[in-house]
Amino acid sequence: xxxxxxxxxxxxxxxxxxxxxxxxxxxxxxxxxxxxxxxxxxxxxxxxxxxxxxxxxxxxxxxxxxxxxxxxxxxxxxxxxxxxxxxxxxxxxxxxxxxxxxxxxxxxxxxxxxxxxxxxxxxxxxxxxxxxxxxxxxxxxxxxxxxxxxxxxxxxxxxxxxxxxxxxxxxxxxxxxxxxxxxxxxxxxxxxxxxxxxxxxxxxxxxxxxxxxxxxxxxxxxxxxxxxxxxxxxxxxxxxxxxxxxxxxxxxxxxxxxxxxxxxxxx
Length: 267
Hints:
- This protein is an alpha/beta fold.
- The chain has one domain: Phosphatidylinositol (PI) phosphodiesterase (TIM Barrel).
- The protein contains 9 helices and 12 strands.
- It has an 8-stranded parallel beta barrel, surrounded by 6 helices. Strands 1-2 form a two-stranded antiparallel ribbon.
- About 2% of the residues have low confidence.
């Protein structure tokens, strides 16, 4: 089914066709919930609930591993970038991280860090939702192999035990390879810094596809990925103009920051 649409939005006609691997429909996920422009912190329960209520079919969540092996929903490398604490998630136990709060959010100053499972359990239902887990690994250099193995085993346990419909994204080839040896049917998305490197590595490893900034892939390159059976999720789609440009590339999925606008365009 080839989707053809003409949208009149803000007195501007926008015409597009969609031809992709997702039955010619672009899947819309929230970016950490409502995205980077929201007054709600990314990866907070309130932000995720809001994006689902507005029509997203699910959401991307950033996932990090605590010192004692808990999957924490948090985006930044260092806690100091957006919370009242500092340092790496993997430097703390979950008991210590429970006390951390997001800062500089005007609606409420008491947003805590959450486990991924806390967010899932806080939803009315997650069985019909789609998740994309962006797994962020920051191991000590001498512990890379062990840390990677623990992380992969932990996320596999969560996905299997909750029977989640999800993608797993990572910049770490070793991490995705480890998961693929254990769960070859998982939808693994490599997260590259360029299309060329991501395309070659995804083909070589037989990954499900790529999760890539819209700045790093052209429409022609996306078509090449599709021709070789690779799913493509776009992110860094932060404005109305970027929403339109991303749609015209025919991705399979967009992780939205301007969610209302994107859903209006696609509806």
